[in-house]
Amino acid sequence: MIIPHQNIAPDTLQTLVEEFVTRSGTDYGSSEASLAEKVSEVLCQLGNGEAVIVYDPALESCNITTAAQARQHLTPETRP
User: Fold this and answer.
1) The CATH number, out of the four listed (2.40.40.20, 1.20.140.10, 1.20.1080.10, 1.10.10.610), of the domain defined by the range 2-21+36-78
2) Helix (H, G, I), strand (E, B) or coil at 35
3) % the chain with pLDDT above 70
């Protein structure tokens, strides 16, 4: 299910985004960006709807993904 980022406490959202951008395998292209720049970019993408936070109740975990990818994998009853 998609969790609106506005429903997440600011400190929790910051921690979630920081964890996401520091994961192994997260690719930001050929140029290196600071943690603050990466976090800012993801927050911007969440704000404009490009990215969404998806909660998986079976795994009890959250992930950040593109809105298009989330829509492909969600069933009608889990869509917002």
Assistant:
1) 1.10.10.610
2) helix
3) 81
